Amino acid sequence: MASNHTALDVARWMLDQLDKQNCLYQEDAVCEIEKRFGHKFVYDNENGNLSIDRSVLKEFRALTGDDVIWERGEKMWRRRCRTDQTGTRMQD
User: Fold this and answer.
1) From CA 13, how far away is CA 49, in angstroms rounded?
2) What residues have CB less than 8 Å from 64, skipping those under 6 apart?
3) 90 or 52, which is more confident?
4) pLDDT-based confidence at residue 1 (cuts at 50, 70, 90)
């Protein structure tokens, strides 16, 4: 596990996974991030669940802009499609 990775490296990995799989589930991503990049890019949230560090999510947002949405019910990211609500990244 190399410690010289940045939040941008992790975000690029997330985008690569999203492009390969057409979606990226948070639960899968957070486990892989911890394994590949180390614990500094994840944290235990208030519910005691492993979550992706905000610095990584900020970089991921910058990389993807409005092209990717967060599907709250599925807890996953995917590419935006015509039927999605405009003006919001989060979809139900």
Assistant:
1) 21
2) 15, 18, 77
3) 52
4) very low
Helix (H, G, I), strand (E, B) or coil at 90: strand
CB 7 within 8 A of CB 56: yes
User: At residue 36, what is the residue type?
Assistant: R
Q: Could you tell me which residues come within 8 angstroms of residue 75 by beta carbon, excluding any fewer than 6 positions away?
A: 25, 26, 27
Record the pTM: 0.88
- State pLDDT tens for residues 8-58: 999 999 999 999 999 999 999 999 999 999 999 999 999 999 999 999 999
Helices (H), 1-92: 7-21, 26-37, 54-64
Do residues 53 and 41 make contact, with C-beta atoms less than 8 angstroms apart? yes
**Amino acid at residue number 18:** L
Query: Which positions ≥6 away from 72 have C-beta within 8 Å?
Result: 90, 91, 92
